[in-house]
Amino acid sequence: MMPVRHALLILAPLGLVLAAFFLVPVLMLLPTSFGSYVPGSGIAKGVWTLENYLRIATDDYYREVIWRTLGLGLGVSLASLILGYPVAWLIARGPASWRVPLILLVVFPMLLNLVVRSFGWIVLLANRGLVNNLLMQLGLITAPIKLMFNLTGVMIGLTHIYLPFMVLMLVAAIRNIPRDVEAAAATLGSSRTHVFLSVTLPLSAPGILAGSILVFVLTISALVTPRMLGGPTYKVMATLIYDEYVQLLDWPSGSALSFALALMAIGIIWASSRLARRWAGMA
Amino acid sequence: MSDGTDHRPGRAVTAAAIAVLVFLQIPVLVVMLAAFSTTSYLTIPPKGLTLAWFGKVLADPTYLAAIRMSLILAFGSTLVSTVLGVAAAYALFRRTLPGSEAIIAFLMAPLVMPAVVVGVALLQFFSLTGLRGTLFGLLMAHVVITVPYIVRSALASLAGLDGALEEAARVLGATGLEAFRLVTLPLILPGVVAGALFAFITSLDNVPVTIFLIGANQTTLPVLIFSSVEMGIDPSVAAVSTLLILATAIVLILAERRFRLHRFV
Amino acid sequence: MSTLTFEALGKSYGDTEVVRDISLTIREGEFVSLLGPSGCGKTTILRMVAGLVEPSRGRILIGSDDVTRLPPNRRGLGLVFQSYALFPHLSVTENVAFGLRRRKVAGAELDRRVREALAMVRLATFADRMPRQLSGGQQQRVAIARAIAPRPRVLLFDEPLSNLDAQLREEMQIELKRLQRDVGITTLFVTHDQGEALTMSDRVGVMARGVMQQFAPPEDIYHRPATAFVAGFIGRPNRLAGRVVRRDGAGGRVRIGDRVELAAAAIDLPDGAAASVIIRQEAIRLAAVGATASPSDAPDRVPGVPGTVLLRSFSGARVQYVVRVAEGVELVAETGSQGAAADLAPGTAVSLNIPPEAVFAMPPEEPAP
User: Fold this and answer.
1) Cα C270 off chain centre by
2) Is the pLDDT confidence value at C42 over 80?
3) For C158, phi and psi rounded to 5 degrees?
4) Same structural domain for residues B6 and B26?
5) A261 with B116: Cβ contact below 8 A
6) Does the structure show a pLDDT above 90 at B35?
7) Do B105 and B168 lie in a common domain?
8) Closest by alpha carbon to A174, among B9, B21, B3?
9) Under CATH, to which class is A43-282 assigned?
10) DSSP readout, C321-368?
């Protein structure tokens, strides 16, 4: 067995890199979030205030953005679950020869550049985009309908981007269900729908939870897609943080919002892992 | 079903699944079509086909510089992350350190933290330390966001290893380093390569951290596309995107052939 | 080829002493087994010899070299693991060549010695296979070839046969013993299987809770166990709750239930103590009452213990009886499947002849091995 000294020695480089370039910078954000922003000159010296956090909790605009972010998280998780389940089911339980090509079709868009995928949706959804052009050519509409810079565009884009994560989680969960259990239910006279509802679906619940949490956290943290498909006006927390840092230079407010976002993400992951543990305890 | 044993997905489910899979590929296909279209807005069918946009991109020094920067960051951060991540995972595997679960949680933390938050935290940190706009700063930022993938895949690969293998090598005369190089490393290599591939793609993909940290004359390819789109759609964006799509597809196919990648996703 | 010596060798984890001051010398070319229940410290000793666990106290010498602080790669040992630990990414040839390459053996010499080692385990035709293409028994042979190819000074085995099925295990025991004789390597073999240890070894060390109970040739271990633990661990024992009636030298008399009183060869307890009484099944001789009507037939004058056959079970070469000797006291007795005692029906009244050498008394809290 390796001596503790050696183990610490080869663990140390990564530990130090993460401490220096992750832990310390994030912690240094904390004092900033209690600072006071002076337009034009940055952060006021020696002033400590809760104002930034109070504003997040009370200001109507901030609250709207936060609720919108959480709503998107919920909506995208749900849409991914509904769209992803059939795909996962087909991969896990369909013909064996389909499995690898299907997985590659799921993984390929996932590996593809986020900016490129969002750009693809712009080409499709813009006012003079493919969808509007097609609908007008077919005579179904006379003026372009607004598919971007609103909820529709952001929902479609985010669902497309995080759906593969959900599918992979569900595939793992469905594969873990012993086929015997499904077969047993079927031989006991259950119809296929009934087998699905009474056996497959409940037994894949841990995967559904894990996939939904993952998609939810990724969605509320997303910057690129909401920015590209939501534009400068339809804002979520991440894009608001971006604007406060890059355009308004209001770092105190931006860092408070950053902590709010980080706490949401971490809190949800923590809560779900507790829930998953309780489920595992019941089984 | 009449025989009661067939619980495969039915025709409706299969059709729905295929529709979703098509939905997943649509933006990809659209981008590729737009890259060859003569008009700046894509129509079906396209008004005409051209390779001009590719020529424009490959002659544009801004794009070339951005591609170069992206590749430097992706290769550099993947290399550093792989070395540091595999070493850390190996230490955790070979030795039951006190609090090893907490250590693993710490190593995986950058994955949990929203990327924007990492971005703004590093923005402030680099502004204070003078690292903003330096290649070193960017490289370290990319190491932070890519290393969890390496640690995760290396830990998973190591967990499947018989601990007696290295002991056998040691007793047969191998030094600790030889035992790692000749026995452990070849056995965890497929998993590590899969992790490195994800790390590479993550680095190449990243906007939310990079965009806060680049200097005045620096940019990466995704950041450039991201900011070009804010200016308005240009088919040269589609052309450079198509190049990325092709590169990704080639890497994915090679990885699948060589390492049966689908086992690791 | 070398001697292997332990000098007051000990290992503790925190306050737990897993190996207590073991001192012994294994002679050149000797085959020694360490035998004991799991957790007795035998594997820890083997791993200390290999350099995989650092001793807390004492010294390990190979020949006259003190190797106590040497890393495993500089000890010149061969080790066969319970899991075989074959390198799955290397062919049979490369597995066997691994140790040779580390010793800078190359070229024709390397080929020759790999072939030689594989021939010794009769696997010459499998040289190009990968480990996963071999059966368990074949993998076992590759592991042995890999261990002996570099001509180690001492060969170590860590329960190498426990993953094989019963028949293959017996074949391998004989083959291993022959191989060890041919090569003449000093061998330390760790096992929990007494049959394995007794069959193969020149000497056996029986261990319990980190303490060497007895280190002696197999015959002595079986017929003259040094402690009650050894007596209870070796052979096929009955274990009955009883009491020491009288001490007399090393032995004395024990009582089981209200009426049965027996002479015992070894008693590890004071007079009057509650005891776990060990009676070897295979040493009990039984005869139907009446069949031994004339007392002059009996070679000695030990009075038989009366009992009733409850159950007979036949297993080929042996027959086992469950005999009730008193209310609530049942014994298992075993005989060969030929002869008068081999066919006693349940209900038969029998007389049991229990020789004192087959009776031992040990503290009742002693856990069953």
Assistant:
1) 29
2) yes
3) -110, 95
4) yes
5) yes
6) no
7) yes
8) B9
9) mainly alpha
10) EEEEEETTEEEEEEEESSSGGG-PPTT-EEEEE--GGGEEEE-TTSPP
* CB-CB contact of A145 with A62 (8 Å): no
CATH number for the domain whose boundaries are C285-353: 2.40.50
Tell me the CATH number for domain C4-228.
Answer: 3.40.50.300
Percent of chain C at pLDDT > 70 equals: 95
From chain B, pick out residues whose CB is under 8 angstroms from the CB of C72: 167, 170-171
Q: Domain span at residue B19?
A: 1-50
The reported pLDDT for the residue numbered C1 is 67
Q: In sequence order, what are the beta bridge partners of C287? A: C351
Phi, psi of A41 (to 5 degrees): -115, -10
Tally of domains in chain B = 2
In this predicted structure, what is the pLDDT of residue C303? Answer: 67
Query: Letter for the amino acid at C9?
Result: L
Gap between the Cα atoms of C180 and C32, Å rounded: 11
Cα separation, A41 vs C328, in Å, equals 96
Q: C103 and chain B: CB distance < 8 Å anywhere? A: yes
Q: Which two tokens stand for residue B45?
A: 């069918």
Closest residue, chain A, to B246 (C-alpha): A112
The 10 Å CB-count burial string (b at 16+, else e) for B87-96 is bbbbbbbbbe
Peptide bond into C152 cis (omega under 30): no
Report the residue of chain B nearest A156, measured CA to CA.
B23
- Structure token digits, residue C313: 């079970």
Q: Is the confidence at residue C115, as pLDDT, over 70?
A: yes
pTM score of the predicted model: 0.83
The H or E element spanning position C79 is strand C77-80
Number of Cβ atoms within 10 Å of the Cβ of C247: 17
- The residue in chain A having the minimum alpha-carbon distance to the alpha carbon of residue B164 is A1
Q: How far apart are CA B251 and CA A13, in angstroms?
A: 30
B168 touches chain C (CB under 8 A): yes
Does residue A6 carry a pLDDT above 80? yes
Q: List chain B residues with CB under 8 Å of C78.
A: 171-172
Residue B192: name the closest of B250, B103, B261 by CA.
B261
Identify all chain A residues contacting B110, using CB atoms and an 8 Å cutoff.
18, 22
CA distance B174 to chain A (A): 14
For B168, the closest of C75, C79, C89 (CB atoms) is C79
CA distance B108 to B88: 12
Subunit contact C72:B162, Cβ cutoff 8 A: no
**B249 closest CB neighbour out of A108, A119, A160:** A108
Tokens of B142: 């990319």
Do C216 and C257 touch, CB atoms closer than 8 A?
no
Contact C85 B164 (CB under 8 A): yes
Do residue B114 and residue A262 have CB atoms under 8 angstroms apart? yes
**pLDDT range class, residue B31, cuts 50, 70, 90:** confident
Q: What is the pLDDT of residues C243-263, one digit of tens each?
A: 999 888 888 899 988 788 888
